[in-house]
Specification:
With about 550 residues, the protein is of the alpha+beta class. The protein is about 50% helix and about 10% strand. The strands form 2 sheets. Strands 1, 2, 3, 4, 5, 6, 7, 8 and 9 form a 9-stranded mixed sheet that branches. The protein has a two-stranded antiparallel ribbon with strand order 10-11. Strand 10 and strand 11 form a beta hairpin. The termini are far apart.
Length: about 550
């Protein structure tokens, strides 16, 4: 491949073109401009803006009237930026005007393709007099727009890995005094080659950063998917909390008054909130699925209430068998009919009592209502009763079954709840192992603090006041609200918005959730907009909503 600094001139007359004005002041100004451009290119993060900057700065330095930037993708040159000062045209980049031109095939007949293939710079004084390349395209462009193409400078963009990643094409160098189109001088060629090289390196670095961001975002989603695969609802929870967190940040950005008026989330902070939302439950990847998905009190790998039902069916059969044997004995011995009928009534009472106890156990197993002391006593009383099986005396309910059925609220034992809460400790440990860049430095703090409370009674660190970050406070509201209104929990129906907000208000009144954030959350209409985005399905319809 030819060296990138080789220059191919289609017309010997190019040497007669006007030169850049001489003089040490001008040279110093040009060098300073190169330095400034280099710094600007290396600091720009937005790829579209970077592409625009490359074309704009090169046009400015060479006094070119038009410029086109191609990027090599899939062995073709794709149009990325089109700019023409005379026609006041800007396409591609951040212009909002997409370029619909087809990509350029790598053929030596096309000057840009030739430069991409050979690595040579091509300087053409007049495209209408050039014979080596096919200029049908520029001529059609002139016919359509009334433009007059003349001089053209085409330079390869070679990065630090010696790869040609694109082509920079300039059109119509202009005389500084008359504005007439003139050939590009040799000094302009050298300057453009230098700029193209800087641009290629900056573009490659920006693309690498973007690729790393895509890779990191993909990693986050893979982790959420891993959790989702273990539990049908947790992955959806993660995505929705991240979404709610961003909605709250946007609401904060939209307010100028009140205690949150001075707070603003810029692009980096919004990205930080997104990542923190996606990773706030990453520790659940180590949590036992049967605890995360414990939809009833007796559930482990499966709901053990089925075993209780089978056991009670066995007890029922044993009662009926015992009475049948006794009844046969009474009949054989000529017992009065009244005695037999009394025995039948006693059996019926026992069976009804057994069924009532089973119904109570089944209802208690759901965890849907608070267990008062009298209900706990009844569970213990049922569990203490015994029956015989294979000559052994056994209890109606095992100690573990009694312990689980006596859970006052919800479906988790204290030990299981502690294991669930430990997921946040694991989340923090996992996030602390990730070397987050500076603009994501608060992810661990925000994600790891979403179970903290304003009054310091939360977990795992008991943070409060100034030690509890705004990001953590936002995610606390988002996490709590999503948990209450979720439509895909296996253990409960979705809660109506009014009731959910009432519960959240109660947490605010108890100084658990941030008052200012919650009030903005409600006043900005986020709950209603969120419900429109995530409506309950027909089978998950909110209780009381149109029933």
């Amino acid at each position: 491949m030819s060296d990138a600094n080789n220059q191919k001139t289609d017309n010997p007359g190019a040497e007669a073109s006007a030169e850049v004005p001489a003089g040490s002041d001008h040279l110093q100004a040009q060098l300073q401009r190169l330095f400034d451009i280099g710094i600007a290119l290396s600091s720009e993060k937005n790829l579209d803006r970077l592409l625009e900057m490359i074309v704009e700065e090169t046009m400015r330095c060479t006094n070119a009237d038009a410029g086109t930037l191609y990027i090599m993708e899939d062995s073709k040159l794709h149009f990325k930026i089109l700019a023409n000062s005379t026609l006041n045209t800007r396409m591609g980049g951040t212009s909002g005007k997409p370029i619909t031109l087809p990509p350029v095939e790598l053929s030596k007949e096309n000057v840009s393709a030739y430069v991409a293939i050979s690595g040579e710079t091509v300087n053409i004084p007049d495209v209408y007099k050039a014979e080596e390349f096919d200029f049908t395209g520029p001529r059609k462009y002139d016919e359509t727009t009334g433009y007059k193409s003349k001089s053209m400078l085409v330079v390869p963009m070679r990065n630090q890995n010696d790869e040609i990643i694109g082509v920079l094409q300039l059109l119509n160098a202009q005389d500084a005094k008359t504005g007439e189109a003139i050939p590009f001088s040799s000094d302009y060629v050298a300057l453009t080659q230098s700029l193209a090289s800087q641009a290629a390196v900056a573009l490659t670095n920006a693309q690498l950063i973007k690729d790393m961001q895509v890779l990191f975002d993909s990693f986050i989603r893979v982790m959420a998917t891993a959790i989702d695969e273990r539990s049908e609802y947790t992955g959806g929870h993660i995505r929705r909390v991240a979404e709610l967190g961003l909605m709250i940040c946007e609401a904060i950005n939209g307010t100028e008054a009140g205690p949150l008026g001075d707070l603003h989330f810029d692009e980096d902070a919004m990205k930080e909130m997104s990542v923190a939302g996606w990773m706030h439950d990453i520790g659940k990847v180590t949590s036992a699925v049967h605890i995360m998905d414990k939809s009833t009190k007796l559930q482990t790998i499966f709901d053990r209430v089925a075993m209780v039902e089978e056991r009670f069916a066995h007890i029922r059969t044993a009662m009926e068998k015992e009475w049948l044997e006794r009844k046969i004995e009474l009949v054989v011995n000529g017992a009065p009919q009244e005695k037999i009928e009394n025995g039948e009534a006693v059996l019926a009472d026992k069976l009804q009592k057994l069924q009532d106890d089973l119904d109570f156990v089944i209802k208690s197993n759901t965890g849907g209502e608070f267990m008062s002391d009298d209900k706990l006593e009844r569970i213990k009383e049922i569990g203490a009763r015994t029956y015989k099986a294979n000559g052994e005396e056994r209890r109606y309910l095992s100690e573990n079954e009694v312990e689980n059925l006596c859970i006052r609220k919800g479906t988790l034992l204290g030990s299981e709840r502690q294991l669930m809460q430990d997921h946040i400790v694991v989340t923090i440990k996992m996030l602390e192992q990730i070397p987050f860049p500076k603009h994501l430095s608060r992810v661990t703090d925000w994600a790891g603090g979403h179970h903290e409370c304003v009054d310091g009674t939360g977990y795992p660190k008991g943070l409060k006041d100034e030690k509890l970050s705004t990001g953590a406070r936002i995610l606390a509201v988002a996490d709590f609200f999503e948990a209450l209104t979720a439509t895909d929990r296996p253990y409960k129906k979705p809660m109506p918005l009014e009731k959910a907000l009432s519960i959240l208000q109660g947490e605010v009144d108890r100084n658990k959730l941030d008052k200012d954030i919650f009030e903005l959350f409600v006043q900005s209409g986020i709950p209603q907009r969120y419900r429109e985005i995530h409506p309950p399905t027909a089978l998950e319809k909110e209780p009381g909503a149109g029933d």
